[in-house]
Design goal:
Blueprint: H1 3-25, E1 57-62, H2 68-84, E2 87-92, H3 96-108, E3 113-116, H4 124-133, E4 137-141, E5 157-160, H5 162-180, E6 187-193, H6 198-213, E7 221-225, H7 231-244, E8 250-254, H8 258-270, E9 278-284, H9 288-292, E10 300-305, H10 308-325, E11 332-335, E12 338-341, H11 345-351
Parallel strand pairs: 1-2, 1-3, 3-4, 4-5, 5-11, 6-7, 6-8, 8-9, 9-10
Antiparallel strand pairs: 10-12
Helix pairs in contact: 2-10, 3-4, 5-6, 7-8
The structure holds alpha-D-galactopyranose.
Alpha-D-galactopyranose is lined by residues 67, 69, 117, 142-143, 159-160, 199, 229, 257, 283-284, 306.
């Protein structure tokens, strides 16, 4: 006899016993329960349709899920979901096709909206159109949608104060260069660029403006466009540039993010430069921390710490309130940055709740 049948028999016996008991002795009328593990036919429950259950589902789509910055955004967005009790669907969308599929899947899951850092800002119109088709709300983070006219699109956005942060980077490079007593004629700056993304261009333009304002010769700032915004992409760009300028003795390295500067610094190492001859200043913090934790300092001197808590938790919270209470989020929010070094990074991150 199978275990299942044995269970059913036992349940039947128990049911009979209780029925007799109720009749004869007036026991409480608790319905008999089948033994654990027994398969019982249950009424069919219809799957919830989007929006029917009062359940809130929010997507959080990021362009580079392998980058610590985006993992941090997800972590803080999840904290927000846990606090308010909504469901968060974290999806890595590295290209346009993945974004479109993700939106379809979100609709199936009953999502009412999503926060997105798009893999390509020109996808903005297609993303908005698809979201509208499903009546989903869209909040853009980090990278701002650009319409066919080249102008930013009308969608709530939270990004860093890119120009200011870039200028802080340039000033930090210039100050450290003065401290090290480098002569301008021996020094050049490697600026790893990604001009097709506005927030990236504003950052490197800000760095360039601050450096030249501090007296650094503009014609010694070499712009190296990276094909991909990761360490490898920046390394390739930096390697080519360093090969073209073999006489430079000291290098300043700046870019749109920590990855850009890490790649540039790795290229200087490849070309035999010691940390004392390199000043790299990034933008981010989460990727810089592993570099600062290395036993010996590298050419990655400092970073401008930005705020994944605000970009993750706050964007998710604004989306939640928008869905639940109809509160429209602000159209344009810019977050600030703070320069930190190997000595101060951990401390400042802890103070801001960005590290345990
Ligand atoms: C862009 C960059 C990320 C990060 C964010 C911050 O998306 O690709 O590395 O700097 O901006 O907003």
């Amino acid at each position: 006899m199978g275990i299942r049948n044995a269970g059913w028999l036992a349940w039947a016996a128990l049911t009979t016993l209780i029925a007799v008991c109720v009749t004869l002795a007036g026991c409480p009328k608790a319905p008999p329960q089948p033994p654990a593990g027994t398969a019982v036919p249950s009424p069919t429950v219809a799957a919830p349709k989007p929006g029917e259950t009062g359940r809130i589902v929010i997507g959080f789509l990021v362009k580079q899920p392998e980058e610590p910055w985006f993992q941090n955004e997800w972590e803080f967005a999840q904290q927000c979901a846990d606090k308010y009790g909504f469901e968060l669907k974290k999806i890595g969308t590295t290209d346009g096709e993945k974004v479109m599929t993700a939106i379809d899947n979100l609709a199936t899951a009953g999502a009412q909206g999503f926060v997105i850092c798009t893999p390509d800002v020109k996808l903005g119109p297609a993303i908005i159109a698809k979201a509208q088709q499903y009546k989903m709300k869209v909040f853009t983070v980090d990278d701002q949608f650009v319409g066919p006219d080249g102008k930013f699109m009308d969608a709530p956005y939270m990004g860093i104060s890119a120009g200011d942060i870039g200028r802080q980077v340039g000033e930090a490079c210039a100050a450290e260069m003065r401290k090290r007593g480098w002569k301008p004629e021996d020094t050049s700056a490697l600026c790893v660029t990604y001009d097709q993304l506005n927030t990236a261009k504003e950052r490197t333009d800000g760095g360039t403006a601050a450096l030249t304002k501090a007296g650094f010769p503009a014609d010694r700032i070499y712009r190296a466009p990276e094909k991909t915004t990761d360490v490898d992409g920046a390394f390739q760009a930096g390697d080519t540039m360093l090969t073209q300028h073999p006489k430079v003795k000291h290098w300043i390295v700046f870019s749109m993010n920590d990855e850009g500067v890490l790649g540039g610094v790795r290229a200087t190492e490849q070309h035999g430069f010691k940390p004392a001859d390199v000043i790299g200043v990034g933008i981010g913090g989460t990727s810089a921390i592993a570099e600062f934790d290395k036993k010996e300092p590298t050419g990655f001197f400092a970073t401008c710490l930005i705020d994944p808590y605000r970009h993750g938790y706050e964007t998710a919270e604004l989306m939640y309130r928008w869905i639940k209470d109809g509160v429209e989020p602000p159209q344009d929010t810019r977050t600030k940055g703070t320069i930190v070094t190997r000595e101060t990074c951990r401390k400042v991150m802890k103070e801001r709740g960005l590290l345990d």
